[in-house]
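Before a colleague's protein record goes any further, I have to sign it off. I want your independent view on whether this chain really folds as the C-alpha coordinates say. The record follows directly below this note.
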Amino acid sequence: MATLVKSNAKLLAAGPLMIPALFLLGLTGAVPYKDFPEAKIGLFGLFCLAQGAGLTPLIASSSFEAITGAALSTGCTMGALGAVTYCAPSQQFLSYNLPLGLLCGAMVGVSMASIALPQSRAIYNVWLWGGLGVFSAFTIYDVQVCLHKIRHEENYDPIENTLELYMDAMNLFVRFLAVMNEMDKSDKSDKKE
Protein backbone atom coordinates (compact mmCIF):
# COMPACT_ATOMS: atom_id res chain seq x y z
CA MET A 1 0.00 0.00 0.00
CA ALA A 2 2.80 2.40 0.87
CA THR A 3 4.37 1.86 -2.55
CA LEU A 4 1.03 2.62 -4.23
CA VAL A 5 0.64 5.86 -2.25
CA LYS A 6 4.21 6.92 -2.98
CA SER A 7 3.83 6.28 -6.69
CA ASN A 8 0.56 8.14 -7.06
CA ALA A 9 -0.07 11.60 -5.67
CA LYS A 10 -3.82 11.40 -6.42
CA LEU A 11 -4.37 9.40 -3.24
CA LEU A 12 -2.60 12.02 -1.15
CA ALA A 13 -4.71 14.80 -2.64
CA ALA A 14 -8.02 13.18 -1.65
CA GLY A 15 -8.11 14.76 1.83
CA PRO A 16 -8.87 18.34 0.75
CA LEU A 17 -11.70 17.04 -1.46
CA MET A 18 -13.75 16.48 1.68
CA ILE A 19 -14.14 20.24 2.22
CA PRO A 20 -16.34 20.80 -0.87
CA ALA A 21 -18.29 17.68 0.10
CA LEU A 22 -19.32 19.36 3.37
CA PHE A 23 -20.63 22.40 1.49
CA LEU A 24 -22.35 20.06 -0.95
CA LEU A 25 -24.15 18.38 1.95
CA GLY A 26 -25.52 21.74 3.02
CA LEU A 27 -26.62 22.53 -0.52
CA THR A 28 -28.53 19.31 -1.12
CA GLY A 29 -31.31 19.61 1.38
CA ALA A 30 -29.82 20.32 4.80
CA VAL A 31 -30.65 24.02 4.33
CA PRO A 32 -34.08 24.65 2.77
CA TYR A 33 -34.00 27.39 0.12
CA LYS A 34 -37.51 28.61 0.94
CA ASP A 35 -36.68 29.32 4.59
CA PHE A 36 -33.02 30.35 4.35
CA PRO A 37 -32.18 31.58 0.82
CA GLU A 38 -29.22 33.67 2.01
CA ALA A 39 -27.64 30.70 3.78
CA LYS A 40 -28.16 28.47 0.74
CA ILE A 41 -26.60 31.08 -1.57
CA GLY A 42 -23.70 31.51 0.86
CA LEU A 43 -23.07 27.75 0.95
CA PHE A 44 -23.18 27.66 -2.84
CA GLY A 45 -20.62 30.47 -2.99
CA LEU A 46 -18.32 28.63 -0.58
CA PHE A 47 -18.75 25.43 -2.58
CA CYS A 48 -17.78 27.25 -5.80
CA LEU A 49 -14.79 28.80 -4.02
CA ALA A 50 -13.64 25.38 -2.79
CA GLN A 51 -14.08 23.92 -6.29
CA GLY A 52 -12.07 26.79 -7.76
CA ALA A 53 -9.33 26.28 -5.19
CA GLY A 54 -9.21 22.61 -6.16
CA LEU A 55 -8.72 23.57 -9.82
CA THR A 56 -5.96 26.08 -9.08
CA PRO A 57 -3.01 23.68 -9.60
CA LEU A 58 -4.43 22.52 -12.94
CA ILE A 59 -5.03 26.09 -14.10
CA ALA A 60 -1.62 27.26 -12.85
CA SER A 61 0.09 24.62 -14.97
CA SER A 62 -1.86 25.56 -18.11
CA SER A 63 -1.27 28.30 -20.65
CA PHE A 64 -3.65 31.21 -21.12
CA GLU A 65 -4.63 29.92 -24.56
CA ALA A 66 -5.48 26.49 -23.15
CA ILE A 67 -7.60 27.99 -20.36
CA THR A 68 -9.54 30.27 -22.71
CA GLY A 69 -9.99 27.46 -25.22
CA ALA A 70 -11.30 25.14 -22.50
CA ALA A 71 -13.63 27.83 -21.12
CA LEU A 72 -15.01 28.61 -24.59
CA SER A 73 -15.41 24.94 -25.42
CA THR A 74 -17.21 24.31 -22.13
CA GLY A 75 -19.51 27.29 -22.62
CA CYS A 76 -20.35 26.35 -26.19
CA THR A 77 -20.95 22.70 -25.26
CA MET A 78 -23.15 23.54 -22.29
CA GLY A 79 -25.09 26.15 -24.30
CA ALA A 80 -25.60 23.95 -27.34
CA LEU A 81 -26.63 20.89 -25.35
CA GLY A 82 -28.93 23.02 -23.19
CA ALA A 83 -30.58 24.52 -26.27
CA VAL A 84 -31.06 21.07 -27.84
CA THR A 85 -32.62 19.78 -24.64
CA TYR A 86 -34.83 22.84 -24.19
CA CYS A 87 -36.14 22.52 -27.75
CA ALA A 88 -36.70 18.74 -27.50
CA PRO A 89 -40.34 17.96 -28.35
CA SER A 90 -40.68 15.40 -25.55
CA GLN A 91 -39.09 14.52 -22.25
CA GLN A 92 -37.26 11.60 -23.82
CA PHE A 93 -33.98 12.36 -22.06
CA LEU A 94 -35.50 11.65 -18.63
CA SER A 95 -35.29 7.95 -19.43
CA TYR A 96 -31.48 8.12 -19.64
CA ASN A 97 -30.96 7.81 -15.88
CA LEU A 98 -30.09 4.09 -15.80
CA PRO A 99 -27.59 4.13 -18.71
CA LEU A 100 -25.99 7.29 -17.31
CA GLY A 101 -25.68 5.70 -13.89
CA LEU A 102 -23.95 2.69 -15.42
CA LEU A 103 -21.63 4.93 -17.43
CA CYS A 104 -20.84 6.96 -14.34
CA GLY A 105 -19.94 3.75 -12.52
CA ALA A 106 -17.71 2.79 -15.44
CA MET A 107 -15.97 6.17 -15.22
CA VAL A 108 -15.36 5.61 -11.49
CA GLY A 109 -13.81 2.26 -12.43
CA VAL A 110 -11.60 3.94 -15.02
CA SER A 111 -10.51 6.51 -12.42
CA MET A 112 -9.64 3.72 -9.98
CA ALA A 113 -7.71 1.94 -12.73
CA SER A 114 -5.75 5.13 -13.40
CA ILE A 115 -4.66 5.12 -9.74
CA ALA A 116 -3.33 1.58 -10.08
CA LEU A 117 -1.81 2.19 -13.55
CA PRO A 118 -0.90 5.91 -13.67
CA GLN A 119 1.24 5.62 -16.83
CA SER A 120 -1.37 3.88 -19.00
CA ARG A 121 -2.17 6.01 -22.03
CA ALA A 122 -5.22 3.89 -22.92
CA ILE A 123 -6.84 4.41 -19.51
CA TYR A 124 -6.12 8.13 -19.72
CA ASN A 125 -7.79 8.34 -23.14
CA VAL A 126 -10.85 6.47 -21.87
CA TRP A 127 -11.01 8.86 -18.90
CA LEU A 128 -10.62 11.91 -21.14
CA TRP A 129 -12.78 11.13 -24.17
CA GLY A 130 -15.21 8.85 -22.36
CA GLY A 131 -15.64 11.53 -19.71
CA LEU A 132 -16.42 14.15 -22.34
CA GLY A 133 -19.12 11.89 -23.77
CA VAL A 134 -20.57 10.89 -20.40
CA PHE A 135 -20.72 14.42 -19.01
CA SER A 136 -22.18 15.75 -22.24
CA ALA A 137 -24.93 13.16 -21.89
CA PHE A 138 -25.33 14.10 -18.24
CA THR A 139 -25.77 17.73 -19.31
CA ILE A 140 -28.67 16.77 -21.56
CA TYR A 141 -30.25 14.68 -18.83
CA ASP A 142 -29.73 17.28 -16.08
CA VAL A 143 -31.21 20.10 -18.17
CA GLN A 144 -34.28 17.95 -18.85
CA VAL A 145 -34.62 17.11 -15.13
CA CYS A 146 -34.26 20.78 -14.22
CA LEU A 147 -36.92 21.80 -16.74
CA HIS A 148 -39.24 19.05 -15.49
CA LYS A 149 -38.85 20.22 -11.88
CA ILE A 150 -39.43 23.86 -12.83
CA ARG A 151 -42.72 22.92 -14.45
CA HIS A 152 -43.94 20.46 -11.82
CA GLU A 153 -42.52 21.38 -8.39
CA GLU A 154 -44.31 23.89 -6.21
CA ASN A 155 -41.30 24.81 -4.05
CA TYR A 156 -38.56 24.88 -6.67
CA ASP A 157 -35.03 25.19 -5.25
CA PRO A 158 -32.90 26.76 -8.02
CA ILE A 159 -29.55 26.08 -6.36
CA GLU A 160 -30.15 22.44 -5.51
CA ASN A 161 -31.66 21.68 -8.91
CA THR A 162 -28.92 23.32 -10.97
CA LEU A 163 -26.02 21.99 -8.93
CA GLU A 164 -25.75 19.00 -11.25
CA LEU A 165 -25.37 21.34 -14.23
CA TYR A 166 -22.58 23.17 -12.43
CA MET A 167 -20.80 19.87 -11.78
CA ASP A 168 -21.28 18.83 -15.42
CA ALA A 169 -19.68 22.10 -16.52
CA MET A 170 -16.76 21.61 -14.11
CA ASN A 171 -16.13 18.06 -15.37
CA LEU A 172 -16.32 19.17 -19.00
CA PHE A 173 -13.95 22.08 -18.30
CA VAL A 174 -11.33 19.80 -16.71
CA ARG A 175 -11.44 17.44 -19.67
CA PHE A 176 -11.41 20.23 -22.27
CA LEU A 177 -8.44 21.77 -20.45
CA ALA A 178 -6.63 18.43 -20.65
CA VAL A 179 -7.30 18.34 -24.40
CA MET A 180 -6.08 21.92 -24.84
CA ASN A 181 -2.94 21.22 -22.78
CA GLU A 182 -2.15 18.23 -24.99
CA MET A 183 -2.65 20.37 -28.09
CA ASP A 184 -0.23 22.96 -26.63
CA LYS A 185 2.36 20.24 -25.99
CA SER A 186 2.08 18.89 -29.53
CA ASP A 187 2.34 22.43 -30.97
CA LYS A 188 5.51 23.09 -28.94
CA SER A 189 7.05 19.78 -30.03
CA ASP A 190 6.22 20.55 -33.68
CA LYS A 191 7.91 23.96 -33.41
CA LYS A 192 11.09 22.39 -31.97
CA GLU A 193 11.40 20.11 -34.98
Remarks:
- The chain has a mean pLDDT of 83.
